[in-house]
Structure formats: structure tokens, C-alpha cells
Write a structure and sequence with these properties.
By secondary structure, this protein is of the alpha+beta class. The chain has one domain: Dehydroquinase, class II (Rossmann fold). Helix content is about 35%, strand content about 10%. The chain is built from one helix and two strands. The chain has a two-stranded parallel ribbon with strand order 1-2.
């Protein structure tokens, strides 16, 4: 579903998945996401939101300069 839409997506994990079980180290979403944020607790969501806003602002700026 994520690969099928043109919505910037960041994979978010509250805990640090690399300190957890081995099977959590492999992401099936990573290839279609802008990035991954983990281990920052609830702040992970804020960091992801800021990153998406920044990406959208840069895209809008690029479109505006082409017009």
C-alpha cells in the first residue's frame, strides 16, 4: 500500500529495534520509505512529522521555482 501511493512515509518505532530481537532488525517497509526513526520514544513521531513537513516544503519550493 505504501509503495502504491505518492505520500512521503517514514517508518517509526518507539523503541530501538536494533537493541531488540534479531528478527526486528529487518524491515519490509524500508525500501519504500523515506527513512526510519527508532528509539526516541514518543518523540519519534515528532521527528518523523518534522522530516515529512521538510520534504513536502522542499518539493513545493522546487515546483514553485519551475513555474
Amino acid at each position: 500500500a505504501i509503495a502504491g501511493v505518492e505520500i512521503p512515509t517514514i517508518e517509526v518505532h518507539l523503541s530501538n529495534i536494533h537493541k531488540r530481537e534479531e528478527f526486528r532488525h529487518t524491515s519490509v517497509l524500508a525500501p519504500v520509505c523515506l527513512g526510519q526513526i527508532s528509539g526516541l520514544g514518543a518523540f519519534s513521531y515528532m521527528a518523523a512529522l518534522e522530516a515529512v513537513i521538510d520534504r513536502l516544503a522542499k518539493k513545493a519550493e522546487a515546483v514553485a521555482t519551475q513555474a
